[in-house]
Structures are given as structure tokens and as C-alpha cells.
Write a structure and sequence with these properties.
By secondary structure, the chain is an alpha+beta fold. 40% of the residues lie in helices and 16% in strands. The longest helix is centred in the last third of the chain and has 22 residues.
């Protein structure tokens, strides 16, 4: 099965990366200087908190889809998807997905054909930089899954485990893994409610994608979610 081949490849790549650097989540030093490439901020429209589709209907109809129309995802739809994953829902700063100790180690990046964006949950904005390389490079780094780069939008679920480790120590890693799943499922359900196709992708080279996205050290990629 394809899943078996992906898992074998992930294990091999992760083992090699750990042997070289001690941790596949550590982006190389040259990437750190690139993180300032976010050169502008865009406000997102307020999220819709009273949709027309029942949760039960969304749960019943959610399926993984790997075929996407060529049209781009609008900014208001992007904002709704990002809010579903990590939006702030009250004055205390709680978010749409549960987080152990409310440490919120998850970052969301949105990749389109010509831009990379990073979500700012507290202000419901995105940091933006122009970059036409990233979307096209994702498929190769996802072991040749061509549909990843065929999507008009890919949401990357990024984790910074140190935020959770500050309170939970060695127990942080499994907690962050579970939280990544909560966030991904929220995005998938929101995509379904909006009539979009989406699929969670876990087969990829996390070290190489960290470089491609110019992630700072200590952050790594847990999911890619093509949407369209």
C-alpha cells in the first residue's frame, strides 16, 4: 500500500536526519536569516461563527479528496480555514482547538502559488511574503505526491514543542502530536463545510520542508493539508 511506502520513507529520512543533526525539526542555521522575509501584514475578514451546515452533516460528508479545481482560494475563505484551526474564541485567548495547558505550540502557514503566509491568531491577520518556489516544491518533498502541489492552497501545521515542554517536560511531544491532530481535523471539517476538497498529508520530509518554508530552529512540520 502507498501508506506503507510513505511510512518506510519517513522512518528512513527521520533516522538519517537525526543521525546528522540530532533532530529532524531543527532547520539549518542559514534558514534563520530568511525568516524576516515576511514583509507585509494582511487583515482577514472576521470569521463566520454561525454557518449554515450542521456539524453532523459535515462529519457525515467529510472525505479525503485529492482532486482540485484550478481556481484560487479567496482571502475570506483562507481566513475561515485558518480561524477553524487556530482562531481565538474568547477574551482569555482560548482557541478553536484544545491545547494542553493552553500552551498553543501550533503555527499555521498557508502556501499559494506565489505567496507564503503565517497566521496571527490573536489579531486574525497573516504575515505575507512573495515566494513562487514553495508550492511547486512541496510535491517532491512529499515523496512525489503530485496532488500536493496541484492544490491552489496548502495549509502547513507547524509545531514548536518547546512551548508545551516548558510546562510538561518530556511529556510534551505526544501532547503536541495530539494537538496537531485536533487542529488538522478542524481545518478538514471547515473545508468540508465550505464545499472544498481537502486531505491530510503525513508523508513528507519534514527537514526539507522546514528549509523550504524557512522555519526557525525548534519548529517542525506535522501536517500538510492541500485544499481547493
Amino acid at each position: 500500500m502507498r501508506e506503507g511506502r510513505w511510512l518506510s520513507a519517513v522512518i528512513a529520512i527521520t533516522a538519517a536526519a537525526m543521525a546528522m543533526s540530532g533532530c529532524a525539526s531543527s532547520a539549518p542555521s542559514q534558514v534563520v536569516s530568511q525568516t524576516s522575509r515576511f514583509d507585509r501584514i494582511i487583515d482577514l475578514d472576521p470569521a463566520d461563527t454561525s454557518g449554515d451546515v450542521a456539524l453532523e452533516e459535515v462529519l457525515d460528508s467529510r472525505r479525503s479528496g485529492r482532486s482540485f479545481a484550478g481556481s484560487s482560494v479567496s482571502l475570506d475563505v483562507l481566513g475561515q480555514l485558518l480561524w477553524a484551526g487556530q482562531g481565538v474564541t474568547d477574551a482569555q485567548g482560548h482557541r478553536t482547538a484544545p491545547s494542553a495547558g493552553a500552551r498553543y505550540p501550533i503555527e499555521l502557514y498557508a502556501i499559494t502559488a506565489d505567496e507564503v503566509m503565517r497566521y496571527r491568531p490573536n489579531s486574525h491577520q497573516v504575515d505575507v511574503r512573495s515566494d513562487a518556489r514553495v508550492l511547486g516544491g512541496l510535491a517532491e518533498l512529499a515523496f512525489g505526491q503530485s496532488f500536493v502541489s496541484a492544490a491552489p492552497l496548502v495549509i502547513a501545521v507547524i509545531a514548536e514543542p518547546a512551548r508545551t515542554a516548558a510546562e510538561y517536560g518530556a511529556a510534551a511531544e505526544p501532547l503536541v502530536d495530539r494537538e496537531s491532530g485536533h487542529v488538522a481535523q478542524n481545518i478538514l471539517l471547515q473545508a468540508t463545510a465550505l464545499g472544498l476538497s481537502s486531505v491530510p498529508v503525513g508523508g513528507f520530509d519534514p527537514h526539507a520542508i522546514a528549509e523550504l518554508l524557512a522555519l526557525p530552529p525548534g519548529q517542525d512540520v506535522r501536517y500538510l493539508i492541500p485544499v481547493g
